[in-house]
Structures are given as C-alpha cells and as structure tokens.
Amino acid sequence: METVVDAQDLSLAFGATKALDGLTLSASAGAVTALLGPNGAGKTTFIRCCTALERPHSGSLTLFGQSPGSPDVLSRIGLMPQATGAWSGIRAEELLRYLSRLYADPQPVEALVDLLGIAPFARTPYRRLSGGQQQAVNLAGALIGRPSLVFLDEPSAGLDPRARRLTWDVVRRVRDAGVAVVLTTHDMVEAAELADHVHIVDRGRVQVSGSVSDLASHGSLEDAFLTHTSGDR
Ligand SMILES: Nc1ncnc2c1ncn2[C@@H]1O[C@H](COP(=O)(O)OP(=O)(O)OP(=O)(O)O)[C@@H](O)[C@H]1O
C-alpha cells in the first residue's frame, strides 16, 4: 500500500503545553488509519498540521511525499473538522454547492446529498441543523472534492445508531475506492469496525500501533487504550 502520510518525530508546543512530543506515524492509501487517545492527546493538533493549519516546530511531515501546505497536496485532501463554527446562515445544499466550486473535479452535490441522507434538511440554514445533521454536511464537505486523503475528526460523535452506521458505510466505501482515511474516535466499537491500522496516542506521541486484532490480543481494544494511555497532561 502506498504510504500517503509520513510523520516522523513531530513536536509542537503551545506555551508550556507539548501538544505533539515526538509523534511518529504513517497512513496508507486504501486503508482506514484510526488515531485513538485521551482528550488532549494531540490528535486534532496532528490533523491541523497535516492540513497546514499548524506547523510543527520540529520533525518531518509529508503528504504524498510533499509538504502539507503545497497547492497540489491541498487539492487532494478533505477535512471533516470536529466543529465548523464558521458556517451560519447558508443552507446545507448551498454550502455544498459553494464547496464543490473550489475543486476541479467535484462529486455531484446531488449524489452526496442522497448518499448521506441530507435531502430532508438540504434547505435548512446550517446553524439550525441538529448536531448530527451538521456532521452529515461536514462529511459531505470533506468528500466533495474527491480527495485521495481524508481526515475525519470524530466523524460519528453524537450520531444516532442509524446515522452512525450510514457514516461507517460511507467511510468503508471511500476506503475501498482507494482513499487514505485518517480518523479520530473515542468510540472503540467504531475503531474495531473500521480501522485497518490503529495508533494509540498519548501525551503527544504514539504509544503503540497495530491492527485491531494485534492490539486486542490480550483483551479488548479498550483494554489496550487504558493500558497505553495515562490521561495525564
Ligand atoms: N491553539 C492552541 N493553543 C493552545 N493550546 C492548544 C491549542 N490547540 C491545542 N492545544 C492544546 O494541545 C493539547 C492537544 O490538543 P488536541 O486538540 O490536539 O487534543 P485531542 O487529542 O484532539 O483531544 P480531544 O480528544 O479532546 O479532541 C491540549 O492540551 C490542548 O489544550
């Protein structure tokens, strides 16, 4: 499998807080790579480095062999952030149409609206959508540019069981189409369902990596999480 994300020994501090402290990991095309770790472990900071919203103070980070902010890289990645406070009055479908115009070869908006069950709230202003409806629109926004690499920051947090399964189906479909999927989750069931490769992150670095069955060989994935994380910052 082609390595798409290659992070070596990344460090980034905010004042005295070491958000990343020697983080090393990789992610491949056609695979779901899950980052598990306690609140504040550095997962979102890592994603922000990959999307060029933050810059590591040291270490090396390449996406498709290039630096994160390069125009070629930016055109090939999608991001579903945890929260998108920026959107307010724009209707869900208008937002997707706007985002689609930013890409050379976008997916048809109608196809994504159907795939993610957005039709019933397509004309609702973004700020009036429920949390789960916003998540569906955010996922559509991440996929609309046909990315080769997509970052999903807690894609199913707060979703009802049916919406969660729909999200999982979409993630699998995207992975099976050859996309590199990097996701964070606190849901061990989700990680076990989706992840081809898991990195358990604590205090800014990867503590242990492997497949779900590797990590759960002495118990459950949650046991591995609890063994390899302290939760102390
Ligand atoms: N812009 C910032 N300024 C100051 N501190 C920050 C900033 N961004 C992140 N941090 C700190 O860096 C650490 C890592 O945060 P990060 O958001 O990466 O964690 P996370 O693993 O994504 O957590 P969660 O599971 O809660 O989403 C935390 O201590 C956080 O408070």
TrEMBL record:
Describe its membrane topology: Peripheral membrane protein
A single Pfam family it belongs to is ABC_tran
Which Gene3D superfamilies is this protein grouped with?
P-loop containing nucleotide triphosphate hydrolases
MF terms from GO for this chain are:
ATP binding; ATP hydrolysis activity
Identify the keywords attached in UniProt to this record, alphabetized.
Antibiotic resistance, ATP-binding, Nucleotide-binding, Transport
Domain of life according to the entry: Bacteria
GO biological process terms, alphabetically, are: response to antibiotic
Keyword Isomerase on this protein?
Answer: no
Q: Which GO terms describe its cellular component?
A: plasma membrane
By its UniProt entry, which CDD domains does this protein fall under?
Answer: ABC_DR_subfamily_A (cd03230)
Principal cellular location given in the protein's record:
membrane
What InterPro entries does the record tag this protein with? AAA+_ATPase, ABC_transporter-like_ATP-bd, ABC_transporter-like_CS, ABC_transporter_ATP-binding, P-loop_NTPase
Its subcellular locations are: Cell membrane
Q: What is this protein called?
A: ABC transporter ATP-binding protein
Organism of this sequence: Tessaracoccus flavus
